[in-house]
Amino acid sequence: MDTRLTAEQDGIRRTLRELLHKRCGSPELRTAVDNPAGYDPQLWSALADQLGLPGLALPERYGGVGCSVTELALACEETGRALAPSPLLATSVLAAPLVLALGTRAQCAELLPRLAAGGLTAALAVAGPALAGALALTGGNERYAAGGGRAGGVQARRAADGWLLYGQADQVLDGHSAGLLLVAAHTGGFARSRTRLFLVPAQASGLLCVRQTALDPTRSQARIQLRNVRAELLGEEEADERAVLAALAALGDGVATVLACEAVGAAGRVLERTVEYVGQREQFGRPVGSFQAVKHRLADVYVALQAARSAAYYAAWATAHGEHVGGLALAQALEALRTAAAEGIQLHGGIGFTWEHDAHLYFKRAAGDELLFGPPHRLRDRAAETSGLFAHGEVAV
C-alpha cells in the first residue's frame, strides 16, 4: 500500500478545502441548515460545476469523473471538516452506486448523467430505522425485509401498467429535497417474499415527504409516506431475487469507508479549533494549553485521531482493491470524533456549551452517525463475524 496521495487526489482535497473555507463558514453553515432544503443549493451547484463532486466516483461514460471510492472518501474528509450540509452522501454514496449496479442500460443512461451533473439529487428509502442493517454494517442482511417496520414498511404490488407502492419509511437522508427516491419495498407476498428497489420521482402522485427534526441538523432526514404511488422497478423484472440484498451489502463497505473519512475530517477540525482556543484562553495568568493535564488530554485525542485516520485511509485504499474493512474503520473514526468533540466542548469551557458555538454540532454529528450507521461495538462485532474471528464462541486460530 502506498500511503502517498497522487497529484490528482491532493488537488481535489486542496481545491475543495479552499472552496468550503470561502463558502461554508459557521454563518453560512447555520443559514444552510435553516434552508427548507437543509443545504445551500448554490454551494451544491458550485461543488458540481467546479469540482464535479457528485460524479466523482461514476464512470466517464455516464458523465462522471471516473475516479474510485478512494477519491470520493478523501473528498468527504473535507466536507466532514466543514460539516458541509449537502445531498452528497444521499446522492453519490447511497443512491447512485445502486443505480449503477442494478439499473438497466436505459435507466443508467437516463439517470446517472443527471446525478453526476448534480442537477438531480436522489435518496435511498428503507423501512424503519434499518439503514445499517440493510447495508449489512451491523449484521447480515439476509433476513432484511422492506416490509418490516412501522405500518408494515413499504409494500409493492403489481398494477395494470406497472407497480404501486404503499407504506412508510423514516429517517431517509435528504429525502424531502431529493428529486428521485430509491425505495426498498416488499414484493411477492408470503409465498415468495423478497425485497426490490423502485424508482419514484419526487412529483409522484400520492407521495408525501416531510422533513423530520434530527439530532444532527447538518444531516437532514425525512419521513416518506406512499399511498398507492406509481413506481418503476429498478433493474430487470427477472433479476435474481438476491441481487438487491447483495448490492446493498456490497454498497455498505463503501458507505462505511466514506463516513469514516468524513468523521476523521470532522475530528481533525475539532482538534485544531480546540488547540487554537486553549492557546489563547488564559487562567491564573497563563494559557490554559500550557497546563500539563490539558496537554495530556489533547495528546490522547491526537493519538486517537491519527489511528482513525490511518484506518480510514487504509479502508479507502482497500475498498478500491476489493478488500472490505470499512466497518472497522468507521467504528474507530466515530469513537475518535466523539472523543474529540467531547474534549473540545469541555476545554472550550462555558462557551463550548452554548448554541452559538459550533462545538455541539460536531458532537451531534458523531452521535447522529452512531445512531444511523453504528454503534461502534456492533460494527466491530459484524467485522469479527465476517472475518471468522470467532468460531463456535471461541477465538479462531
UniProtKB/TrEMBL annotation:
Domain Acyl-CoA dehydrogenase/oxidase N-terminal: start-end pairs: 6-118
Stretches assigned to the Acyl-CoA dehydrogenase/oxidase C-terminal domain: 258-385
Pfam families referenced in this protein's UniProt entry, alphabetically: Acyl-CoA_dh_1, Acyl-CoA_dh_N
Lineage: superkingdom: Bacteria
Keyword Flavoprotein: yes
InterPro entries to which the protein is assigned, alphabetical: Acyl-CoA_Oxase/DH_mid-dom_sf (IPR046373), AcylCo_DH-like_C (IPR036250), AcylCo_DH/oxidase_C (IPR009075), AcylCoA_DH/ox_N (IPR013786), AcylCoA_DH/ox_N_sf (IPR037069), AcylCoA_DH/oxidase_NM_dom_sf (IPR009100)
Keywords: FAD, Flavoprotein, Oxidoreductase
GO molecular function: acyl-CoA dehydrogenase activity; flavin adenine dinucleotide binding
Co-factor requirement: FAD
Family: Belongs to the acyl-CoA dehydrogenase family.
PANTHER family named among the record's database cross-references: ACYL-COA DEHYDROGENASE, ACYL-COA DEHYDROGENASE FADE28
Full protein name: Acyl-CoA dehydrogenase
